[in-house]
Specification:
mainly alpha
Length: about 140
Protein backbone atom coordinates (compact mmCIF):
# COMPACT_ATOMS: atom_id res chain seq x y z
CA UNK A 1 0.00 0.00 0.00
CA UNK A 2 2.73 2.43 0.94
CA UNK A 3 4.69 1.69 -2.24
CA UNK A 4 1.74 2.84 -4.34
CA UNK A 5 1.62 6.12 -2.44
CA UNK A 6 5.31 6.73 -3.05
CA UNK A 7 4.94 5.87 -6.73
CA UNK A 8 2.08 8.27 -7.12
CA UNK A 9 3.98 10.99 -5.30
CA UNK A 10 7.09 10.54 -7.42
CA UNK A 11 5.10 10.42 -10.65
CA UNK A 12 3.26 13.60 -9.75
CA UNK A 13 6.45 15.63 -9.25
CA UNK A 14 7.50 17.82 -12.18
CA UNK A 15 10.49 16.51 -14.10
CA UNK A 16 13.48 18.79 -14.32
CA UNK A 17 16.02 18.60 -17.13
CA UNK A 18 19.69 18.83 -16.14
CA UNK A 19 21.51 22.01 -17.10
CA UNK A 20 23.68 21.96 -20.20
CA UNK A 21 26.81 22.83 -18.21
CA UNK A 22 26.40 19.89 -15.82
CA UNK A 23 28.38 17.32 -17.90
CA UNK A 24 31.22 19.82 -18.28
CA UNK A 25 31.33 20.39 -14.52
CA UNK A 26 31.33 16.64 -13.89
CA UNK A 27 34.21 16.11 -16.32
CA UNK A 28 36.13 19.01 -14.78
CA UNK A 29 35.63 17.57 -11.30
CA UNK A 30 36.82 14.11 -12.41
CA UNK A 31 39.88 15.66 -14.09
CA UNK A 32 40.75 17.66 -10.98
CA UNK A 33 40.40 14.56 -8.79
CA UNK A 34 42.68 12.57 -11.10
CA UNK A 35 45.22 15.40 -11.08
CA UNK A 36 45.22 15.51 -7.26
CA UNK A 37 45.65 11.73 -7.00
CA UNK A 38 48.44 11.82 -9.54
CA UNK A 39 50.14 14.69 -7.68
CA UNK A 40 50.06 12.77 -4.39
CA UNK A 41 51.52 9.67 -6.07
CA UNK A 42 54.13 11.81 -7.82
CA UNK A 43 55.30 13.35 -4.55
CA UNK A 44 55.29 10.00 -2.72
CA UNK A 45 57.23 8.13 -5.38
CA UNK A 46 59.64 11.07 -5.76
CA UNK A 47 60.46 10.87 -2.06
CA UNK A 48 60.87 7.10 -2.33
CA UNK A 49 63.13 7.45 -5.37
CA UNK A 50 65.34 10.09 -3.78
CA UNK A 51 65.47 8.14 -0.52
CA UNK A 52 66.53 4.93 -2.22
CA UNK A 53 69.20 6.79 -4.20
CA UNK A 54 70.59 8.44 -1.05
CA UNK A 55 70.52 5.12 0.84
CA UNK A 56 72.35 3.40 -2.02
CA UNK A 57 75.62 5.20 -1.20
CA UNK A 58 76.16 3.83 2.36
CA UNK A 59 74.82 0.41 1.40
CA UNK A 60 77.32 0.25 -1.49
CA UNK A 61 80.11 1.16 0.93
CA UNK A 62 78.87 -1.58 3.26
CA UNK A 63 78.92 -4.09 0.40
CA UNK A 64 82.47 -3.13 -0.64
CA UNK A 65 83.64 -3.41 2.97
CA UNK A 66 81.97 -6.78 3.26
CA UNK A 67 83.64 -7.97 0.05
CA UNK A 68 87.09 -6.90 1.26
CA UNK A 69 86.58 -8.49 4.69
CA UNK A 70 85.38 -11.77 3.24
CA UNK A 71 88.56 -12.15 1.17
CA UNK A 72 86.45 -12.77 -1.92
CA UNK A 73 88.97 -10.92 -4.12
CA UNK A 74 91.83 -13.10 -2.91
CA UNK A 75 89.97 -16.33 -3.68
CA UNK A 76 88.85 -14.98 -7.04
CA UNK A 77 92.36 -13.87 -8.01
CA UNK A 78 93.69 -17.25 -6.94
CA UNK A 79 91.37 -19.02 -9.37
CA UNK A 80 92.75 -16.94 -12.27
CA UNK A 81 96.42 -16.81 -11.26
CA UNK A 82 96.95 -20.39 -10.09
CA UNK A 83 95.20 -22.59 -12.62
CA UNK A 84 96.90 -25.77 -11.30
CA UNK A 85 95.10 -25.40 -7.96
CA UNK A 86 91.85 -24.88 -9.79
CA UNK A 87 92.30 -28.10 -11.75
CA UNK A 88 93.46 -30.15 -8.76
CA UNK A 89 90.89 -28.97 -6.22
CA UNK A 90 88.33 -27.29 -8.44
CA UNK A 91 85.33 -28.30 -6.40
CA UNK A 92 86.82 -27.12 -3.13
CA UNK A 93 88.01 -23.83 -4.60
CA UNK A 94 84.59 -23.26 -6.12
CA UNK A 95 82.85 -23.92 -2.80
CA UNK A 96 85.25 -21.59 -0.97
CA UNK A 97 84.58 -18.92 -3.59
CA UNK A 98 80.81 -19.33 -3.26
CA UNK A 99 80.95 -19.26 0.55
CA UNK A 100 82.99 -16.06 0.57
CA UNK A 101 80.47 -14.09 -1.55
CA UNK A 102 78.89 -11.37 0.63
CA UNK A 103 75.25 -12.10 -0.13
CA UNK A 104 73.79 -9.60 2.35
CA UNK A 105 75.55 -6.61 0.82
CA UNK A 106 74.88 -7.67 -2.76
CA UNK A 107 71.21 -8.36 -2.00
CA UNK A 108 70.80 -4.98 -0.30
CA UNK A 109 72.40 -3.09 -3.19
CA UNK A 110 70.36 -4.92 -5.82
CA UNK A 111 67.16 -4.37 -3.85
CA UNK A 112 67.82 -0.64 -3.61
CA UNK A 113 68.70 -0.40 -7.30
CA UNK A 114 65.46 -2.16 -8.26
CA UNK A 115 63.48 0.03 -5.84
CA UNK A 116 65.05 3.15 -7.33
CA UNK A 117 64.33 2.07 -10.90
CA UNK A 118 60.73 1.09 -10.16
CA UNK A 119 59.96 4.25 -8.20
CA UNK A 120 61.56 6.37 -10.94
CA UNK A 121 59.31 4.66 -13.48
CA UNK A 122 56.26 5.47 -11.35
CA UNK A 123 57.45 9.07 -10.89
CA UNK A 124 57.62 9.49 -14.66
CA UNK A 125 54.19 7.93 -15.10
CA UNK A 126 52.58 10.15 -12.46
CA UNK A 127 54.43 13.25 -13.67
CA UNK A 128 52.70 12.83 -16.99
CA UNK A 129 49.34 12.67 -15.20
CA UNK A 130 50.19 15.56 -12.90
CA UNK A 131 51.46 18.05 -15.43
CA UNK A 132 49.80 17.11 -18.74
CA UNK A 133 46.12 16.70 -17.83
CA UNK A 134 44.24 19.69 -19.20
CA UNK A 135 41.06 21.00 -17.70
CA UNK A 136 38.10 20.92 -20.08
CA UNK A 137 36.01 23.86 -18.82
Amino acid sequence: MENDTYKELLLSLPRLAPSEAMPLHIIARITETKRKESRVRFIGFSILSIGSLITLIPITNFMLTEISESEFYQYLSMTFSDSDTLFLAGKDVLFILIESVPLLGITAVLTLVLLFLYSTKLVAKNARGTFLITQSV
